Structure of HD domain-containing protein:
Amino acid sequence: MFEAIQQCETAVKQIYETFDASHDWQHIERVRQNAKAILKKEKADASIVELAVLLHDVSDPKYKKADEDLETDILDSLKLTKEQNSQIQEIIQSVSFKGGHGTVPATIEARIVQDADRLDAIGAIGIARTFAYGGAKGRKLYDWKEEPRSEMTEDEYRSKPTSSATHFYEKLLLLKDQMNTETGKQIAEERHQFMLSFLKQLIKETDGNK
């Protein structure tokens, strides 16, 4: 599997380097480190976890072109078994938040990858990524008159250009309680508290109406 991982890394790095800073190659490196930290306490197939981490954003709807299926193209090139391909694809399907409509992870590998990815969405790095993505999309930093949505379809979640601060209330502050592994829960707690402190200060420094 080492050769497949090396081949996959080479292929995906070129793709992630074309994405904005919220989903670039550094994001993948951090998620991989998160997964390795969780794997110290969880028994799982580390190679499958690593391949899923490497591939999990190459076909993200936010960046995918209509005529592309990079995830399948790269998987097919790795010459894995059908079972391994299927397992990796199932993990990737379970990673995304999808406006709260994401798939519940069915395997320990999927739970690890989901936690590893979501840990990179919270805390100091989560704050940085949120504003990096918002800036790339031309979104407001904050809009305290904007009501965060608690019920929305996946399409509504993806299509409405809410402010970056609103995104905290619609997703990031929800992730702590959705962690699957004990390691994920422990790391998430500190990062969650940091986000709450940041938002409190942001409100103080702006119009203070929230």
Remarks:
- The two ends are 51 Å apart (CA to CA).
